[in-house]
Amino acid sequence: MDRTDALADFDVARNEWEVAFAKVPDDALGYLKPGDDYALGGLQVHVNWVLTHYSRVLDGMIAKKFAQLPPLDPPGEGEAANKKAKVGLTSSERTGSLKEMARLHAAVLAGARRLQEDDWGRKAQVIYGEGQDPYPTSAEDIVGWLRDHYREHVEQSAELISSWNESR
Q: What percent of the chain is predicted at pLDDT more than 90?
């Protein structure tokens, strides 16, 4: 998929997620299905952390001109986000979380648009965690992963709303 189409579909996927998340009742934001890692409202926390992570990787690839990247996430940040995602959101946190997603989404778009067209599919060797091998990653990969990630949680949130309704 070329960059223009990929970025347009990235926007569509974000909108799909926003529509799905808008269907989550405030009372269900803290619902954690037994065995799950994320509360229903925690899906939004998780989406934001993933956007943060990959925006950081994209910016690093651009800044380092596609040289190998070390792990970029501050120690413990992912674990803290996962802990918050397990708890979920309160109704008063919902709006701020959605505004943060809009900001993060825009940052990914801006990073992808800063690239020369020839660099859209160019791979950098990215080390995602201490002790891991480098993984070849392009802006095209990142936008595709994020697009799919939104859509994964569209389906998951609908299932969790049903589960929450059944549990009441």
A: 98
